[in-house]
Write a structure and sequence with these properties.
Blueprint (H helix, E strand, L loop, with lengths): L22 H4 L8 E6 L1 H4 L2 H4 L6 H6 L1 H9 L11 H4 L2 H7 L2 E5 L3 H7 L6 E7 L2 E7 L15 H12 L5 H12 L8 H6 L1
Parallel strand pairs: 1-2
Antiparallel strand pairs: 1-3, 3-4
């Protein structure tokens, strides 16, 4: 499985996590008691690393559900910049994290028994006196279905975005083109040379 987000798509393949799950609803959050409840794998929901509303390091940020929900809600583009000190210490992110709770999804185990590829997860947003819910059976990047699988364009875009910190645009394009056409290469040394 290839992860579509800038955080762990699940601690290995046993949990569901897709920041895109929350986008539509979290944008409606207002002030006061508005909050987000995320339901996922019971094992993950029991791990402080996943549900803590405080992060101290890049590793903690990669595994933290409240942090990922805050990043999506605040419009941060998914990528390496999620783990920059400026993002991790942004007061808006820290405040938003306080409004996110993580719980076990009540049907996670039964859905997993029915389909070993499924990693059901949901978001419940209480905003401006209304309740919004969204549930996914498969996380983005899962090979389980055509709809959940990342397209070649999505994979290429993610590569270009992540590589932009270390490769020029032209070099990244050459790497991506070479990888997409690996079966046509007569000699793999060409791949090493463009890195």
């Amino acid at each position: 499985m290839l992860n579509a987000g800038a955080v762990c798509s699940g601690a290995s393949t046993t949990t569901v996590f897709n920041p895109g799950l929350y986008v539509g609803a979290v944008l409606s959050l207002g002030a006061g008691h508005d909050h987000v409840k995320v339901q996922c794998d019971p094992h993950a929901a029991s791990l402080p690393l996943w549900y803590s509303r405080e992060i101290e390091s890049e590793i903690e940020a990669q595994m933290n559900v409240p942090y990922a929900v805050a990043m999506v809600a605040l419009g941060f583009k998914s990528g390496a910049e999620w783990h920059d000190d400026a993002a991790m210490n942004d007061p808006r992110v820290r405040e938003f994290m306080q409004r996110v709770t993580v719980a076990s999804h009540p049907h996670f185990e039964e859905v997993l028994k029915e389909d070993s590829q499924a990693r059901i997860g949901s978001a419940e947003v209480h905003a401006r006196g209304k309740r919004f819910t969204h549930e996914l059976r498969y996380r983005k990047g899962s090979p389980a279905t055509d709809a959940s699988r990342m397209t070649d364009d999505e994979l290429t875009d993610k590569f270009h975005h992540c590589a932009s910190r270390v490769l020029s645009e032209e070099r990244a394009r050459r790497v991506a083109d070479t990888v997409w056409n690996l079966e046509k290469l007569q000699d793999l040394t060409g791949l090493a040379q463009i890195w």
